[in-house]
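User: Please run a holo structure prediction.
Assistant: Happy to. Please share the sequence and the ligand.
User: Here you go; the ligand is (R)-mevalonate.
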Amino acid sequence: MIAKASAPAKTILFGEHSVVYDEPAIAGAVNKRAYITIKESKSDKSIFRAPDIGFEAELLSKQKKYILTKGKPGIIRYILESLYRAHDHSPIDITLSSNVPIGSGLGSSAAVTVATLAALYRYHNIRFNKKSLAHDAHMVEQAVQGVASPLDTLVSTYGGLVYLSRNKKVEHFKVNFNAPLVVGFTTKHGNTGKMVKDVKNLKNRNPKIINPVITAMGNLTNYAKQAILKKDYNKVGELMNINHGFLDVIGVNTLELSRMVYNAREAGAIGSKTTGAGGGGSIIALCPGKVDEVANAIARDDSILKVRFTRRGVSSRVYK
Ligand SMILES: Nc1ncnc2c1ncn2[C@@H]1O[C@H](COP(=O)(O)OP(=O)(O)OP(=O)(O)O)[C@@H](O)[C@H]1O
Ligand SMILES: C[C@@](O)(CCO)CC(=O)[O-]
Ligand SMILES: [Mg+2]
């Protein structure tokens, strides 16, 4: 029997950092995916392979350990934690292939986790639905990372654009918001935990300045929700630019991120901003009619990916 599953990457459109202080956020699934295949092993060992990143390891799933044959560890921790929760330790071959850059702020860890759990549930004929899968995947991210927001695994499971309200209620946008986006990413990956802590310290030192900014970021996200519902791309772009300014105020932008953001705007993006925790990582640029111009401008110094929001969430099936 072969079980296959795939799940999309995500990008945060509005609300990173302010969401930590219970302000709303908007994130969406993009059309880059992680694909997992599980089949019985031909030997008595379980093997995990990810040829795209040159990774191979023997899995000792009972002990939550692995023996590295090729590549750099990291993403395998999400696979092991998923196996620990959903596998009976019989020998299997797991293959990951992915067109999501790993560790660049596009939620590769969540996409891999959601796809791995869905494939394992199929393989073992365990009943699941999107709600239980999103929950289980969040538990895996939390166990591996210590802390994790539920947003990445939620978006990766359901697909589409998601609005998280001030009281943590999840709303799925029904509207198709599929303007083209260019993601620009640097080789440096920001450390999310450190960035969140830096913002907290800045806020504690300057409460009268930073508290109203955090509130304004939340209000901005709510304006953005209305603009998305009306498919008003220009308004969304304007709000992305203001959001980038706020992220500058709270100190998470870097030379590379700002360079990409301004290169994108000069080349015709109607909005561009840092996405995710900052301190490295990625930017997104909204660029209807100007994708190639914007992509070329960013690619002069940094790496790019052309994406669109997609309604397609996790998908999985078995082949007997
Ligand atoms: N070449 C690689 N091979 C294997 N693992 C890697 C490689 N590069 C990064 N990793 C690991 O992949 C994981 C990526 O997860 P992480 O949550 O940091 O990034 P992300 O999910 O892509 O972005 P974000 O969560 O910020 O949206 C990390 O554990 C990292 O150590
Ligand atoms: C910076 C942050 O808001 C988003 C990181 O992708 C942190 C979080 O929500 O956990
Ligand atoms: Mg992640």
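Residues 107, 109-110, 152 surround magnesium ion (ligand 3) (CB under 6 Å).
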